Amino acid sequence: MSDQMLVTAARMLADGEVCVAGCGAARQAARLARAVHAPRLTVLGDDGTVDGLPAATAGVADLACWLQGGRVDVGLLAADQVDAFGNVNTTVLGEYDEPTNRLAGVGATAEIAAGASRVVVLLPHRLPAFVERVDFVTAPGALAGPLDRAHLGLRGSGTVAVVTDLGVLRPDPATAELVLTEVHPGVTVDRVRAETGWPLEIADEVGVTEPATAEEVAALRGG
Amino acid sequence: MATISPLADAVDALVHDGAEIAFEGLGAAVPAAAARAVLRRRPRDLTLVGTAPGPAGDQLVGAGCVRKLVFSRLDPGLHRIRDALVAGWPAPLEIEEHTQAGMAARYAAGASGLPFATVRDGYTGTDLAALTHVATVRCPFTGAELTALPALRPDLAVVHARRADRAGNVQLGGAPGVRKEAVLAARRALVTVEEVVDELEPEHAAVVLPAFAITLIAVVPAAPPDRHACDDAVDRSWAGVSGDRVRFTSWLEEIRA
């Protein structure tokens, strides 16, 4: 997984916050934040762990209570496919009944997307994964517009950032469509466009993310 | 009240064709030995329930023991389940998917004698809501719309735990998952343990299941050292066997020999 992607996602987590992170890249980014700049970040696992420890008091059912009760600030989701409205697919590629590829399924992804105050989505930026409309809405981003979440009573803000190995996309508040706001050092806007399967909006001023520091790289290698 | 029994006898007594069987547990808490014992018994038409079915679920599906799989998450490396879903090998597999919290809530409802559970989040706004077995209900107090989920009441729950005492009380240990919920929801429960002790030492935050909730206990060799379920959710050696029909078939023959 790209260091710059993990580092950029980790920097979006603030000290003292409560985050929930599934396995893989999401958990790596959360642990990185704890190690480097957010020592009091609570990292809840979707497997019922708290800061990596199995805790009988934090079973899967407790996690659901905390999410629905509004106690979780940020959810980190690793996606297989994402669309222009930040909706996440981790269920199937192709048709549900006749999938071309069967993915991991929902797990806690949908609850996190609904209940966490904000959601950061992580995935490598590749054309087949960045589609105008996901094959399957496993977890709702903005669905199809800025009012859809509120209309359905979904608590959190949904996807506030999609962090990839090329840069960062954030929703336009007016349309809820993702806009390219930052690229990683050395990445061109054209390259991002070429790996995105819809006419991607580009921010007026596209920022460049800070390269990973030696401390961040060391923390990633160490844990 | 729980009885301690050899594993093969316990499986013979509790696993029947067509039964709905829950296998629960993550990481080192997977009921691996029990899964192998079930494979040897060669049941047919099982409804297998598992929040994250893992290699145990993959083996049972690959062996053609499962008609329907009820689950929340398929870890990478479970190629037998994917082969059944995409290519219908060795037989087509019916599926019913739920969110992780949905599975926990369904077990809790079953354990409490309630016909259904409710959740607010996890289905609303997703494509799963229209494809799986859920409904919408209105809260009689606040008017809020909620998702209703049918209770789970499996014929049998199979879980692995650290130890039991001679009276049949079980101390779980490891990542909790939804083992407790599954055992309490099921009509019968088979628990594999690594040791039987005279008395359970109180352990902070350790879940103890009372003997009255358990049918049979079998002692099996200790699982590999505990690791976070997340870090290596599916044993890489299993992914290798699972990835190839021929390798899997000879693995299965060996297990059954």
Q: Would you kindly provide a brief summary of this structure?
A:
The complex is a heterodimer of chains A (223) and B (257). Chain A is α/β, with parallel strands linked by helices.
Give an account of the 3D structure.
The complex is a heterodimer of chains A (223) and B (257). With 223 residues, chain A is of the alpha/beta class. Chain A has one domain (3-222): Glutaconate Coenzyme A-transferase. Chain A has helices at 3-10, 25-36, 60-68, 109-115, 148-152, 189-194, 214-222; strands at residues 18-21, 42-45, 49-50, 53-54, 74-78, 81-83, 88-89, 92-94, 99-102, 118-122, 130-131, 159-163, 167-171, 178-183, 201-208. The mean pLDDT of chain A is 93. Chain B is an alpha/beta fold and 257 residues long. Chain B has a single domain (3-221), classed as Glutaconate Coenzyme A-transferase (3-Layer(aba) Sandwich). Helices cover 30% and strands 25% of the residues of chain B. Chain B contains nine helices and 13 strands. In chain B, the strands form two sheets. In chain B, strands 1, 2, 3, 4, 5, 9, 10, 11, 12 and 13 form a ten-stranded mixed beta sheet that branches. A three-stranded antiparallel beta sheet of chain B has the order 6-8-7. In chain B, helix 2 links the parallel strand 2 and strand 3. Chain B is globular and about 55 Å long. The interface between A and B is large, with 51 and 52 residues.
Q: Spans of chain A with pLDDT under 50 lasting ≥5 residues?
A: none
Largest sheet of chain A: 8 strands, mixed
- Named at the architecture level, the CATH assignment of chain A is 3-Layer(aba) Sandwich
Count of β-strands of chain A: 15
* Count of all domains of chain A: 1
Number of helices of chain A: 7
Multimer state: heterodimer
